[in-house]
Amino acid sequence: MPLVIDDDAARRLARTYVWWQPVEATLAHPRKLLRQILRLGRSEDYLEADRLWGAEALRAALLTALPGDIDPKSERFWRLRFGLDEAQ
Question: In sequence order, which ranges of the chain are alpha helices (DSSP H)?
Fold first, then answer.
């Protein structure tokens, strides 16, 4: 997963979705940020995350999420969006 610490858009996303920790910590390991975007994000923020980290990073964040990281409705939406069936 590419590190994009110096990107202003990435810093904005980190401040918005993982407000409780320093931006640098969030961007050093952005899976929590990506999960927050999958759970709470606006469509434009999802598109920005896709531009910055790529669809594969978002998909990996979904697949490695722990119970409660992403609500069931959002998880179902993203599983459909990424073409995943329930068994994966």
Answer: 8-17, 23-28, 31-40, 43-53, 55-63, 72-81
pLDDT tens, residue order, the chain (88 aa) = 555 556 899 999 999 999 999 999 999 999 999 999 999 999 999 999 999 999 999 999 999 999 999 999 999 999 999 999 765 4
* 14 and 5 Cβ atoms separated by less than 8 Å: no
Are residues 64 and 31 in contact, defined by beta-carbon separation less than 8 angstroms? yes
Q: Where are the domains of the chain?
A: 8-81
Query: Cβ neighbours of residue 32 under 8 Å, at least 6 residues apart?
Result: 18, 26
CB-based burial label for 8 (10 Å; 0-12, 13-18, 19+):
exposed
